[in-house]
Amino acid sequence: MIEQIQEGEYLVTYRDGVEIAREINRPAEVVLPEDFGSVVTVLAFRKRFTSAERIAIDLASLHDATKAVNDPANVQAAALRQSQKDLDSAKYVQLDRADILTDLNTMVAAGLLTAGRPAQIVGPPVGSVELPAAIRLQYGLAEVPSEAELALNGGRGWLSPAEVA
Q: How do the domains of the chain map onto residue ranges?
């Protein structure tokens, strides 16, 4: 009978109780693609915005009860709330979807983002730490980023485009 047993850093193979092979057991190196596509976690998408932008969007989404329901400011606030609800119910964000860019350009028109920000938000390549768990597993990565992987991103699971630039 052949069996393999992990002994420290070695994988030892036994045949009928007699050791026949001993080798260092190192995990196979994972070769990652240069392009992970366009799907990120919702948190990774939110972190592509600066803190000031997230706060401005949140404040702009508030309803002003002193104005008519159909006042342009309240209509804009409702549109922002709907975008946020879509994000809240999403499992991931596909950065190259037309509706994502439309929502970002609406935020530009509302003065919440500068003209170049939509491209800076959706344009940078997706990092391995931004991937949803199911996609990470498809690439042979752990479901959750390792400390070493996070260290490549300043110890966090993301870098905002402003920090990369």
A: 1-30, 39-164
Angle at 135 between CA 134 and CA 139, to 5 degrees: 120
Q: ∠ CA(150), CA(88), CA(57), 5° rounding?
A: 85
User: C-alpha distances in angstroms, 3 versus 22, 24, 26, 145?
Assistant: 12, 16, 18, 32
Contacts of 68 (CB under 8 A, 6+ apart): 74
* C-beta separation of 120 from 47 below 8 A: no
Pair of tokens at residue 39: 């799907």
pLDDT tens-digit series, residues 70-101: 888 889 899 999 999 999 999 999 999 999 99
Asked whether residue 159 carries a pLDDT value surpassing 70, the answer given is no
Given a cut of 60, whether residue 162 has pLDDT beyond it is no
Asked whether the beta carbons of 76 and 67 are under 8 A apart, the reply is no
- Helical (H) or strand (E) element with 135: helix 133-138
Quick check: 61 and 84 in contact, CB under 8 A? yes
- Please give the structure tokens belonging to residue 9: 């850093």
For residue 48, what are its two tokens? 């592509």
Q: What is the pTM of this model?
A: 0.71
3-state secondary structure of 158: coil
